[in-house]
Design brief:
heterodimer; A: Arc Repressor Mutant, subunit A; 2 domains; 12 strands; about 20% strand; B: alpha+beta; Beta-Lactamase; Heat Shock Protein 90; 13 helices; about 60% helix; elongated
């Protein structure tokens, strides 16, 4: 593959050491890197560098991270992965609502970052008209509306099927409560009744597909944010 | 004004006494033909006794003398002169006068004693009130305020309090109207240094009288109280000094007690702060540095070209360093949470969720540390949802389960179970580990407190106190007990939302 075909990543963090570690690790994985230390540089770079993915620290010195995301979203659909320190659940939800695709909590391992990158970039690939998607032991056949666990078909209600399909299509990526409720129920999460339905559906799905529903390893809960289908095995 | 009033009252008392004598005389005029004069004397004596008991010595004497004169003038023949017809009236007059004088003296003394008793009663009640009020005072300022107010009320005077400030004695507080001259200050200083009360001196510039008393405790003089009587008549009498001394002694003890209590409180706060800081420093230096040692060690080993390590060894080193970095991150997180809780910026964002999900997510996050541990989970499928801050509550369970893993042998199971009660959910995390010494049980949730016994287990002593903070922020309760056989059980009770569907 010629070098110009490499996937281009914009790294935005005001800490030089973090940018350096990301640059070295990601370059060695075959990505082209552009560094930005301020919100202004991110916005400039997002135009001039034509990044395929943006890794954005929410705490840049000159601009509010949410404004940076909104600014990018006006012009482009470039996937954005947020870096933030822990415990900022409302901030993360706000960033995801503003259009970010996923988040990572500092400190993070490069393995996690690579998995997130892969998951968000799946969105970039041309939508193939695949009929069967496979994530680890889970398989979903879109045309037959059938889900297989370890090759065995599982009986799901239509709602359970819709939720699982959504998760499988976004395998490895976080889906917020809001996103799932809008996609599956076409309702706003402010309605507590629907939110409750979502929790019950997830619980039922786990009973049907998880090896141990008490300790889920497929459908993971993102505290206060939403759910994520594990795809890194 | 007051003086005039008192004078008027006295004059009225004399007038009433005189008119009583005149009334008896008029009565005598009517009955003198039927009654022996000696019998009429009895009526005069009655009036004398009444005067003596009601109004004291003066009116009684007046009544006696006037009575003898009227008796002689109007009722003893020859009438309307002071001369007398029969010699035996001399005896009547003499006995009349003597009996009158004795009765008036005795009666007025009895009256004085009654008044004195009433005064003592008033003092006793004043003292009682003061000691009551002082007992309720918690601070030095409060005690002073109570004394100032009560002394002013009991003695009808204005009060000033002088307290030592460094080497000098300064006016601490005074009632409006208390004179502010150099003289008062000098007297107060004299009283302070000599530990003796002083009446000060009265001159034309100070119409009223002053009185200065030291606040004496058995050890020292802790201040001086000045009293200024606007009306000389109200000035302290010598027997009132006793009451004042009693009051001031009590006050001094109260002030001293309040002062000591304040000092003790201050020292206790200082001690706690110091202890906490020492513990924090200790914790930081040890728990933060230990992982740093391994991380730095690993990095420098790999940086140093002279050490030749095969790939597998390098990986092993890096893995340990990575685990230690995780540990470091957790410690920093715990310290942050603790700080947030103490400064009150912990924001709890409650959302309904399933306990099963909460426990499952906690275990998922703990999976590197639990390894192959058998963890039994008994959560009823129909358990009602709870309303909690998912990520904080997850941290609480993370810490408790991590604690169970750390303090029990690797081959023993951990049992997590839950049950719904009335408006609450009870959750138990039970291990079969080393248990907790009874001494430690009470303090296990205290900050920086770590059980004495298993010393080879690392930790900051923050995890459980954070759990407690989180659970209590959800209006829940966390307790711990030793199991009858072995190990401990942590019990968490969380309230259920009232609105349930």
């Amino acid at each position: 593959m010629p070098k110009s075909q490499n996937i281009r990543i914009l790294i935005a963090d005001d800490e030089r050491s973090i940018r350096q570690f990301l640059k070295i690790s990601l370059s060695s994985s075959g990505y082209d890197i552009f560094e930005a230390a301020t919100g202004k540089e991110v916005l400039e770079g997002s135009v001039s560098f034509h990044p395929d993915v943006i890794i954005l620290d929410l705490g840049l010195p000159d601009m509010d991270g949410l404004d940076v995301i909104r600014d990018i979203r006006i012009r482009a659909k470039t996937p954005i992965i947020i870096l933030s320190v822990r415990e900022e659940v409302p901030d993360k939800v706000a960033a995801l609502d503003a259009g970010a695709d996923d988040y990572l909590t500092k400190p993070f391992s490069i393995t996690e970052l690579l998995a997130r990158l892969k998951a968000v970039m799946r969105r970039l690939l041309p939508a193939d008209q695949k009929e069967v998607y496979q994530v680890d032991k889970l398989a979903i056949d879109i045309t037959k509306r059938q889900v297989l666990v370890n090759g065995n078909p599982v009986n799901l209600t239509p709602t359970e099927y819709d939720v699982l399909k959504l998760l499988i299509l976004h395998a490895g990526r976080v889906l917020t409560h809001k996103q799932i409720l809008q996609e599956v129920w076409n309702k706003d999460e402010a309605l507590e009744g629907v939110f409750h339905l979502l929790r019950v559906t997830i619980s039922n799905l786990r009973s049907k597909i998880e090896p141990d529903p008490d300790r889920p390893v497929c459908i993971l809960t993102e505290p206060g944010i939403g759910y994520r289908l594990r795809s890194d095995k | 004004m007051k003086k005039i009033k008192i004078k008027g009252k006295k004059i009225r008392v004399y007038l009433v006494s005189i008119s009583l004598v005149l009334m008896v005389t008029v009565f005598g005029e009517f009955v003198k033909r039927d009654l022996e004069p000696a019998n009429i004397v009895m009526f005069y004596l009655l009036v004398i006794v009444i005067s003596a008991v009601r109004w004291g010595k003066g009116p009684a004497l007046t009544t006696s003398i006037l009575g003898v004169l009227c008796f002689d003038f109007f009722l003893v023949p020859p009438f309307l002169t002071l001369s007398i017809a029969s010699i035996h009236y001399i005896f009547t007059f003499f006995v009349f006068l003597v009996v009158g004088l004795i009765v008036s003296t005795l009666a007025s003394r009895m009256r004085e004693q009654t008044i004195q008793a009433r005064k003592q009663e008033a003092r006793a009640s004043a003292l009682y009130h003061l000691s009551d009020d002082l007992a309720g005072s918690n601070t030095f300022e409060e005690a002073l305020e109570i004394i100032q107010r009560n002394v002013g009320r009991i003695f009808q005077c204005t009060v000033a309090i002088y307290l030592p400030v460094g080497e000098t004695l300064e006016l601490n507080n005074r009632d409006p109207g208390f004179p502010l001259g150099e003289y008062e200050k000098e007297t107060a200083v004299w009283v302070f240094h000599h530990a003796r009360s002083s009446r000060g001196r009265t001159d034309s510039t100070r119409p009223g009288k002053m009185y200065f008393v030291p606040f004496k405790t058995p050890q020292e003089v802790i201040g001086v109280m000045g009293m200024s009587f606007p009306d000389e008549r109200d000035a302290i009498s010598s027997d009132e000094e006793d009451l004042l001394n009693a009051l001031v002694n009590q006050a001094a003890i109260a002030i001293q007690r309040a002062k000591l209590a304040e000092e003790t409180r201050h020292i206790e706060v200082m001690r706690q702060t110091e202890k906490l800081q020492a513990a924090l420093l200790n914790s930081i230096s040890h728990d933060l540095r230990t992982p740093m040692v391994s991380i730095t060690g690993t990095l420098t080993t790999l940086l140093d070209n002279s050490t030749a390590l095969d790939h597998a060894t390098q990986k092993e080193l890096l893995q340990t360093a990575n685990e230690d970095a995780d540990r470091l991150n957790r410690i920093v997180g715990n310290l942050l949470d603790m700080t947030k809780m103490e400064t009150g910026v912990l924001r709890i964002n409650k959302q309904p969720c399933e306990l099963r999900d909460l426990i499952g997510a906690s275990l998922e996050q703990l999976k590197d540390r639990t390894g192959n541990r058998i963890i039994r989970i008994d959560i009823p499928k129909d358990l009602p949802e709870i309303s909690v801050d998912f990520s904080f509550m997850m941290k609480a369970f993370f810490n408790i389960i991590d604690n169970a893993v750390k303090y029990s042998p690797a081959d023993t199971p951990i049992h997590i179970k839950a049950a719904a009660g009335r408006n609450k959910i009870d959750i138990e995390v039970k291990d079969q580990g080393f248990g907790i010494a009874p001494n430690d049980l009470k303090r296990i949730f205290d900050k920086f407190y770590r059980a004495e016994k298993p010393q080879n287990i690392s930790g900051t002593g923050l995890g459980l106190s954070i759990c407690k903070g989180i659970v209590e922020a959800h209006n829940g309760r966390i307790t711990v007990r030793n199991n009858p056989d072995k190990g401990v059980t942590f019990m968490i009770t969380l309230p259920l939302d009232d609105k349930r569907d």
